Every structure is written in C-alpha cells, then in structure tokens.
Amino acid sequence: MAAAAGWLAGPGTRRPRGRRRRDDPRGGRYTVTVIERGHPLNAVVVNRLEVAPGLMVLRVAADGWELPEFTPGQFAVLGLPAEAVRCAAADPEEERSNPRWMIRRAYSIASSSVAREFFEFYINLVRSGELTPRLFALAPGDRIWLGPKVTGAFTLDEARPDSHLVLVATGTGLAPYMSMLRTMLPVTSERRIAVLLGARHSWDLGYHTELLTMERQNPGLSYLPTISRPGGEVRPWHGRVGHVLEAWRDGAIELAWGFPPTPQSTSVFLCGNPQMIEDMAVLLTGEGYREHSRRCPGEFFVERYW
C-alpha cells in the first residue's frame, strides 16, 4: 500500500483542464495539490488485472459514500500523493520537495453505468509519467483518491438515436466504448454497431475476449480488430493487419454490415492516438461527415485525450 494512504487533496483542488498530456489516457493537464492532514483517501482498489505488459484494468470502489451516476463515455478523476510508491518498471523520478502533494488525472470509465458497485478504468503505463507508475504499484485493498464528480461530453446523447454507430479506438481509447456497450447491449432495434479497434500487437487488444463474446451474442454488433505489427506475434495472426484508417478505407464496415456507412445513416466516434484521430477526421470530412459540436451538430465525435 502506498505510504501516503492516509491523505486526501484538501482545499484548492481543481479538476484537470487544458491540453492533454501523455500520462493522461483520458485527458487534462496534470494537477498537483497540497494534501491536507486528516482527510483520508476516499476509495479502495477492489481489483487490479494487468492484461498485457503496461496495460491494466483497475476497479475502484467508494469507501463510505455512493458513486455518482454517470453517462457512458464520461470520465472520473483518480489521484495519489507524490510519496506513493512507483512500480518497478517506472523510470527514475526526481525527488519532490513536498511528497504530500496530490497528483491527479482524468480517466474514462469503462464499467457499465447501470451497476455502480465500482468504477472500472483501462490504463496504459507511461514509465516516465507522474501518476500511472503509482497506479501500477497498487494492489487490492490499497487506498486511492476518486473524484466525487463525473463529467465529459463524449457520449451517445447527441448522436441521432436512429443512426448506426462506428466506434473507432486505439489502445486505451477503447474504455468509453466498453462503458457504452456494457450499458446499451443488447440492442433490440435495427441499429448496427461496429467497434474498429487498432493496436500494435494482438495482446494489446484490450477486452478482446469480452468483445468477441458480445459480438456472438448480439447480431447487430461487429467487432473489427486490426494490428499494425504482425511480425512480432508469438502465434500467427489471422485477422486484419494495418491501421484503423486503412480498415475504414478498405471497406471493413461495409463488409461487416452489408451496406456502407454514410453521413446520413451513421455516427462515428473517435478516441485514442491523436494522429489516428486527425487522420480519421480528414478522411471522414472528405466523405461528407462533419465534426460534431454543440453549436454545429455533426456526424463524427472526437475525444482528444492527450
């Protein structure tokens, strides 16, 4: 357990904002806040699973308070004090003048919004980062700070309810889609859903088994994984090879659905690597899609998280 498990951010704390940094899979400039004595960390790690080297599923439960309601696609804030232990794989870090400062990051919630016994997060280790090396050192029973508010606009609420959905992700950008799928499935309407997920290697395809099971149980769902470095596979990879942009351009969605996605029929969500998002945005714009904003509704939705 982290040595600072008795402390919590005190007055003056603020939610991360501004441009995203690489240590923040959900986004936001990192924030450090002086820790006040007498304020215990307010949540507990109930499960921790390292699904691949540097990829972790972390479940956190509130301790003595009720988790807030949220809409799938939104994010919560996690925090640990600077004196918390870093994992063995982390890069060396300069000693801080105040080890009781709280480091916080925002992470998309991956769990269903219906069952709220815990919040689940899908986290990538940044070895030189501020918070993730400390998160990767946690074990079940360890204490952590969990922000009491959930926020974010990357949800299905503003997509047309009759539109088909394409959920495009790389890496831990899959997290908000897992919350959406776990909450909304099974879909009884004629709506079609495709999950287009990219990773370097097959073992980096988070939630792969669960997504395959969802696909088998829901005829309207198509799971389309692709890897960009098949030469490094331990076992032969028989699936799609390349990046998600290439899969879209090669007609993977049309092949799965039996008809092509169009701006008139389909809403597209993008979450993950910034270069993927920019490349997909250019491609979609060229096909007649418009980036959505509250002032100017469009057909594709973007979550830029670093």
Describe the structure.
There is one protein chain. The chain has helices at residues 132-135, 175-184, 208-217, 244-249, 252-257, 274-286, and strands spanning 8-9, 27-36, 43-52, 55-62, 75-81, 101-108, 119-124, 143-146, 164-170, 193-199, 221-227, 240-241, 266-271, 300-303. By secondary structure, it is of the alpha/beta class. It has 2 domains: 8-146, Translation factors (Elongation Factor Tu (Ef-tu), domain 3, Beta Barrel), CATH 2.40.30.10; 164-303, Rossmann fold. The chain is globular.
The CATH homology group name of the largest domain = Nucleotide-binding domain of ferredoxin-NADP reductase (FNR) module
Helical region count?
6
From the N-terminal CA to the C-terminal CA, the straight-line distance is 29 Å
SSE series:
EEEEEEEHEEHEHEEHHEHE
How many domains, as an integer?
2
Q: Outline, from the CA principal axes?
A: globular
Quaternary structure of the protein: single chain
Q: What is the CATH fold-level name of the largest domain?
A: Rossmann fold
What would CATH call the class of the largest domain? Alpha Beta
Rg, alpha carbons: 20 Å
